[in-house]
Amino acid sequence: MTGAIVVYVIYVLLAVGLITWLSVVLRRDGRVFLNDVFHSQPQLAGSVSQLLVTGFLVFTMGYALLLLRIDGRATTIGALRSSARQFGYLLLTLGAMHSLNMMILLAVRRRSTERSAPRRRRVTAR
Fold first, then answer.
1. How many CB atoms lie within 10 A of CB 45?
2. Residue 122, pLDDT score
3. Helix (H) or strand (E) holding 3
4. Domains of the chain: which residue ranges?
Protein backbone atom coordinates (compact mmCIF):
# COMPACT_ATOMS: atom_id res chain seq x y z
CA MET A 1 0.00 0.00 0.00
CA THR A 2 1.44 3.38 -0.97
CA GLY A 3 1.75 6.32 1.40
CA ALA A 4 -0.95 8.21 -0.52
CA ILE A 5 -3.48 5.41 0.03
CA VAL A 6 -2.70 5.43 3.76
CA VAL A 7 -3.31 9.20 3.85
CA TYR A 8 -6.67 8.78 2.07
CA VAL A 9 -7.72 6.02 4.47
CA ILE A 10 -6.76 8.22 7.44
CA TYR A 11 -8.84 11.08 5.95
CA VAL A 12 -11.90 8.82 5.71
CA LEU A 13 -11.42 7.50 9.25
CA LEU A 14 -10.98 11.02 10.67
CA ALA A 15 -14.01 12.34 8.77
CA VAL A 16 -16.24 9.45 9.89
CA GLY A 17 -14.97 9.75 13.48
CA LEU A 18 -15.54 13.51 13.59
CA ILE A 19 -19.00 13.29 12.05
CA THR A 20 -20.03 10.47 14.38
CA TRP A 21 -18.79 12.34 17.47
CA LEU A 22 -20.57 15.53 16.36
CA SER A 23 -23.82 13.64 15.82
CA VAL A 24 -23.67 12.32 19.40
CA VAL A 25 -23.01 15.82 20.77
CA LEU A 26 -25.77 17.34 18.62
CA ARG A 27 -28.26 14.67 19.70
CA ARG A 28 -27.45 15.10 23.40
CA ASP A 29 -27.28 18.89 23.57
CA GLY A 30 -29.80 19.58 20.83
CA ARG A 31 -32.46 17.52 22.55
CA VAL A 32 -32.37 19.81 25.60
CA PHE A 33 -32.82 22.82 23.34
CA LEU A 34 -35.63 21.17 21.36
CA ASN A 35 -37.40 20.15 24.57
CA ASP A 36 -37.43 23.83 25.48
CA VAL A 37 -38.76 24.83 22.06
CA PHE A 38 -41.42 22.09 21.98
CA HIS A 39 -42.08 22.06 25.74
CA SER A 40 -45.73 21.10 25.33
CA GLN A 41 -44.90 18.27 22.88
CA PRO A 42 -41.94 16.21 24.14
CA GLN A 43 -42.47 13.45 21.56
CA LEU A 44 -42.23 16.01 18.77
CA ALA A 45 -38.96 17.30 20.27
CA GLY A 46 -37.54 13.77 20.20
CA SER A 47 -38.68 13.18 16.64
CA VAL A 48 -37.28 16.49 15.40
CA SER A 49 -33.99 15.74 17.17
CA GLN A 50 -33.73 12.33 15.50
CA LEU A 51 -34.61 13.74 12.08
CA LEU A 52 -32.04 16.54 12.40
CA VAL A 53 -29.29 14.12 13.42
CA THR A 54 -30.18 11.72 10.61
CA GLY A 55 -30.12 14.53 8.05
CA PHE A 56 -26.82 15.75 9.49
CA LEU A 57 -25.25 12.29 9.21
CA VAL A 58 -26.44 11.62 5.67
CA PHE A 59 -25.46 15.06 4.37
CA THR A 60 -22.06 15.28 6.01
CA MET A 61 -20.98 11.70 5.27
CA GLY A 62 -21.93 12.19 1.65
CA TYR A 63 -20.19 15.55 1.49
CA ALA A 64 -17.03 14.18 3.14
CA LEU A 65 -16.87 11.41 0.55
CA LEU A 66 -17.55 13.81 -2.33
CA LEU A 67 -14.65 15.97 -1.15
CA LEU A 68 -12.31 13.00 -1.33
CA ARG A 69 -10.21 13.22 -4.47
CA ILE A 70 -8.06 10.15 -4.92
CA ASP A 71 -5.14 10.63 -7.25
CA GLY A 72 -3.35 7.38 -8.06
CA ARG A 73 -0.22 9.31 -9.05
CA ALA A 74 -0.09 11.45 -5.89
CA THR A 75 2.92 11.36 -3.62
CA THR A 76 2.40 10.99 0.11
CA ILE A 77 2.99 14.73 0.59
CA GLY A 78 0.59 15.59 -2.24
CA ALA A 79 -2.09 13.32 -0.79
CA LEU A 80 -1.53 14.84 2.65
CA ARG A 81 -1.93 18.39 1.28
CA SER A 82 -5.06 17.40 -0.62
CA SER A 83 -6.59 15.59 2.35
CA ALA A 84 -5.83 18.47 4.72
CA ARG A 85 -7.56 20.89 2.33
CA GLN A 86 -10.53 18.56 2.01
CA PHE A 87 -10.77 18.18 5.79
CA GLY A 88 -10.65 21.98 6.12
CA TYR A 89 -13.54 22.33 3.65
CA LEU A 90 -15.45 19.73 5.64
CA LEU A 91 -14.89 21.61 8.92
CA LEU A 92 -15.91 24.94 7.38
CA THR A 93 -19.05 23.38 5.95
CA LEU A 94 -19.95 21.76 9.28
CA GLY A 95 -19.48 25.08 11.06
CA ALA A 96 -21.64 26.91 8.52
CA MET A 97 -24.36 24.25 8.72
CA HIS A 98 -24.34 24.40 12.51
CA SER A 99 -24.63 28.19 12.49
CA LEU A 100 -27.50 28.08 10.01
CA ASN A 101 -29.32 25.42 12.03
CA MET A 102 -28.89 27.44 15.23
CA MET A 103 -30.30 30.57 13.57
CA ILE A 104 -33.31 28.59 12.34
CA LEU A 105 -33.89 26.94 15.71
CA LEU A 106 -33.54 30.24 17.57
CA ALA A 107 -36.14 31.76 15.23
CA VAL A 108 -38.46 28.82 15.92
CA ARG A 109 -37.87 29.20 19.66
CA ARG A 110 -38.52 32.94 19.53
CA ARG A 111 -41.77 32.34 17.67
CA SER A 112 -42.74 29.64 20.15
CA THR A 113 -42.12 31.83 23.19
CA GLU A 114 -43.95 34.76 21.61
CA ARG A 115 -47.02 32.60 21.07
CA SER A 116 -47.01 31.19 24.58
CA ALA A 117 -46.36 34.50 26.34
CA PRO A 118 -49.47 36.25 27.60
CA ARG A 119 -50.28 39.28 25.55
CA ARG A 120 -50.42 42.53 27.42
CA ARG A 121 -53.25 44.86 26.73
CA ARG A 122 -52.26 48.36 25.84
CA VAL A 123 -53.60 50.98 28.15
CA THR A 124 -54.20 54.27 26.48
CA ALA A 125 -54.47 57.50 28.38
CA ARG A 126 -57.59 59.51 27.78
1. 20
2. 62
3. helix 3-37
4. 3-109
